[in-house]
Each structure stands twice: as C-alpha cells, then as structure tokens.
Amino acid sequence: MNIAKPALHGFDSHRLARIDTLLRDRYVAPGKLPNAQILIAHEGEIVHFSSQGAAREGGADIDETSLFRIASMTKPVTSIAFMMLVEQGLVAVDTPVHHVLPEFKGLGVYNGGGAGVPFLTKSTDEPMRMVDLLRHTSGLTYGFQNRSNIDAAYREGRLESWHGNHDLDGFVAALGKIPLEFSPGSAWNYSVATDVLGAVVQRVAGMPLDEFFRARIFAPLGMDDTFFTVPEDKVHRLTDCYDFFPGGKPVMMDRGEKSAWSRAPKLVSGGGGLVSTALDYHRFCTMCLNGGSLNGVRIVGRKTIDLMTQNHLPGGADLASMSKSLFSEAANAGTGFGLGFAVNIDVARSMIPGSVGEYYWGGMFSTAFFIDPVERIHMVFMTQLRPSSAYPIRRELKTLIYSALT
C-alpha cells in the first residue's frame, strides 16, 4: 500500500495524527471499541491509514487485510448496480416497482388492524417507484425499528433473517402481503427498500445478485476481498463483531472464526450483507469520486454519479422534515437523500465541517464512509460494534479530518 505525503495533498500531518490519538485514547484503549481502522484519501491517493486494536479476542492486531462486516455500506453498491441497468435502458429511475416485481401490484397503505387483527388498507396516492427504493421513501420499514404494527409483522415473519425461510423472491412475495407504512413519496423511513432494489437488479439482469456484483462491479474494480460469504481461505481474516453494552464492555455478537458470514445466506441482502476491507471500499469510493471509473474501467457514467448524489427528497426537503424513522445512519438536519447516499445540502445546519454535495453512509456495526467531491477527499472507517449510534465517532472523525486540511 502506497501512502502519499499528506502535505502534497493539502493535509497537515500533525493534525492528521490527532485522529489516531482520538481513536486510541478515547475508544480502543478504554475498550469502548474492539479496534479502529481509518483510511483518508485525496484524489484517490491514500494520505493517511492507521489500524489499532485486536482483530479477534486475544489475537493479533487488525491490518489492511482485515475483513469487516460493512452492513448498510452495501446499499450504495446495490444502488450503483441498479443504475448500471438504467444506463443499459433496461429500467428507469421512475419505473413503478410492480412493473419488475408484480408481487407489489396493488400494495396498499396501512389503515388499521395488525397485532392479530386483519390489516385494513387504503390505496397509495402514487405507485411506489424505483426512486422511492433508492431514497427510502417507499413506505417499507425495518422490523427492528419497533415502532408500528407493520414492523411487528416483519418481525413475526422473520423477513430480515438471512439464514431463514426466504430467498430474495420469497422475501419480495412476503413483503407484498404486508401494507406500507405510508404512501410512497410522502415521508422518509429507513427500510428494507435496498434489499428490494437488490431483487429488482436480480430480475432485470437475469442473474443472481451476488453474481452480478462479482462480475460487473467487484472483479472490474479489483475488489477481491468483498463478498456476501467469506471464502474458507479468508475466514481467518474476518474480525470479531460486538454489541454495545451500556455501562459495560462490548459483548461478543459474532465470532470471526465461527461467523454467520462464513455460511452462504439464503437471503442475499443488497441492503446490508457484504463483508469488505478498507482498501476494497477505498476502490469503490475512488470510482465514485472519479465520476464512475477506476484505472480505465468504467462502471457508470459521470452524469449518473451526478444524478445519484443530488438531493432527491420531494421539494428539496431534508431528513429532519421528512423522516419518520427511529434509526438512520445520518444526522437529519441539513441532510438530503440521493439515489443510494445521504447528501449534505446545508453545512451550517449539520453543525459539522463539510461541503455541500458531500455524500456518505454507514453501517450498523459503526463502519462509515464519506466522499467530498469539492475537496476531492474521501474516508473509510472500519470497526465492529453494534449499534452505530453508540458513540458520536463519525462526527468526531469528520471534524478532525476537515480540521487537518491546509
């Protein structure tokens, strides 16, 4: 791995060193995080990379080969996959979802019932369109939100279980029998929408989602360490994963050596199933920053990335005014949503240094990335602690990174 001189890329190396101090002294040394790895790049060139903490309980430290469960950082990959099919003229951003997934035809909005009583529904004001899946305005939800009779029905059906009863087609069929929480386009709710988008990609492309990712995105970009199932010869590189325990030490959630991610899932999750490395995700971010290409390989067109990274919320709204979600991987104020990414639309309202047009997301195990097309920088952060809201680490990292720009 080549690391460029920070000063040649507009960074103060002494200020970048504060990041490692923060991660070590505030998080890794006190045992709040099992480990922490950060990659910062300018114009696609790495200017800072550091790792600290153990990959596994009582084991060696993490390094650039360590594998991390990236959860919802899978979503931008699925969104790019969909836009590749748009560029082929096979589907459009405003295509009604039921044109590709007929299981969703006639899906209504919740109007009473549930908890053992049959659901009552009313018609949607507008059909659910692909844009609603991409920007989380579909009316779908997540079972773990614990906020409505709809997410209770998701939990009851174990819809989000990757090793459960459903493959992607079965998952879509089951969702087609449960009402929407709201009429598509009328509100924002973090949801299984990107898993549904994965089913759309699979149907339109006529090949399994994992095969599409491998053939059309990962192999061309050289992302050889990104997959839904960790190959047997790479399982030794998979880190342990923990749950946050208020007032105590993190509790083991998934051991690397016996990980659920080492077994092929029945439900391939375009919303959260991937495992990757910081270096692989760096390649994905660089492709995005470059307007859809890397090392002479074009994944999508430059104007497609432009379209994806604009705010697509109705009326130019931000998440603070539209979100019904109890959970998000973004701060809501000053944040819009594009086609697969959160988008910074008002730096002042976010109250963190940044740029208008910067786009980003994270995963529930506290991994995160952001891409700033104005300053031409990006960050990839890896660790393994659920939930991502346990600590304000993303805000702190962004503050320190921007404070190091000269």
Any descriptors?
single chain; 406 residues; alpha+beta; seven-stranded antiparallel sheet; three-stranded mixed sheet
Q: What can you see in these coordinates?
A:
- The protein has 406 residues and is α+β, with helices and mostly antiparallel strands.
- It is 28% helix and 15% strand.
- The chain has twelve helices and 16 strands.
- It has helices at residues 13-28, 75-87, 130-135, 149-156, 168-175, 193-205, 209-221, 278-289, 302-308, 319-322, 347-350, 393-403; strands spanning 35-42, 45-53, 68-69, 109-110, 121-122, 241-243, 251-254, 275-276, 293-294, 297-298, 335-337, 342-344, 359-362, 368-372, 377-382, 385-386.
- The strands form five sheets. The protein has a seven-stranded antiparallel sheet, sandwiched between helices. The chain has a three-stranded mixed sheet with strand order 7-6-16, with no helix packed on it.
- Strand 1 and strand 2 form a beta hairpin.
- The longest helix is centred in the first third of the chain and has 16 residues, at 13-28.
- It is globular.
- It starts with 12 loop residues before the first helix and ends with a helix.
Task: Please provide a brief summary of the model.
This protein has 406 residues and is of the alpha+beta class. It is 28% helix and 15% strand. Strand 11 (335-337) and strand 12 (342-344) form a beta hairpin.
